[in-house]
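FAQ: What does the model actually see?

It sees only this:
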Amino acid sequence: MAWNFFRRAEGAVPEQKASATGRVVAWGSSGRVAWSPRDAVSLTKTGFSGNPVGFRAVKLIAEAAAALPLICQDGERRYDVHPVIELMRRPNPGQGRAELFEALYGQLLLSGNGYVEAVGGGLPTELHILRSDRMSLVPGADGWPVAYDYTVGGRKHRFDMTGPVDPVCHIKSFHPQDDHYGLSPMQAAAVAVDVHNSASSWSKALLDNAARPSGAIVYKGADGQAQLSGDQYDRLIHEMEMHHQGARNAGRPMLLEGGLDWKPMGFSPSDMEFQKTKEAAAREIAVAFGVPPMLLGIPGDATYANYQEANRAFYRLTILPLATRVTAAVSYWLSTHLGEHIELRPDLDQVPALAAERDQQWRRVGEAAFLTDAEKRSILGLPPLADEG
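And it is asked to produce this:
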């Protein structure tokens, strides 16, 4: 028998509940758009599209979390066939389950916020991920959102959140200084991203200059005190720009005449530390996202004994907490649409990186003679058997 505690009785007035601090949070902003204090577009361009470490960290987390197999169950049994399972198999015509969740996790990592739109009444017929940089929250008098505005160009669509079910599921990361929006790892890594990008730009400029620092052209006249005339100076600058700058002119001999002499300049000890600064910035980016630097190919990090241990820690400390939190929010939201309790959660028994840990847990629980079968199933996250009530 399906649970119906999500259904509202006809004619019943819903009980009004609110946090005691809601009026304080909403004071002075009721009915107005609460703009996010960060620029997600700029962070995405510099930290994801323009930085290989940030790009790989986000892709690694989003793809790994989206690939986790999901369990669909309620308080009584685990389902092999269920409308929610069918919905997740193909959430919309353009995306499968993995693509949908990858986009959702990516939005969370880049902006700290993820938005899922439901299409259709009752159980949604389609699910869509909305771009967080286009969404803005409209708080009500009690501090909770009464609407979300989705703006593209000069057009705006408002999602009303005051109905019996929410058309949008807003998932956000913890932010200690914002009541409406989440804090993304990309924001925490913004300084390290700038350092890494600047280091890459410096390296590119160095390669364009024949992979060595510039030197100095010294002019000595007949008496050692003469100066170049204006025409001579302009001609020298023109010759340098046309024939001795850029990668295509690397190693090209320079013809000096009229008292000109070339004095090359070498690297100082501080210049030799430049690559270490870049690697340190890359490690900071990896730490902000919770990815072991070893998995990103960053040298000089021996925190983990081997790659397998780093991969296990990556799943245990980063992937599973994120996937569990997101699937719990999505399943509760879908339960309100469905009218009955349903739970989606990662199937830990099918994660190869955790196979050794799961084997030990199953063996330990199975050999515990002081536990009943019902208690063992509960510890392992399994629903009770039908004859157990």
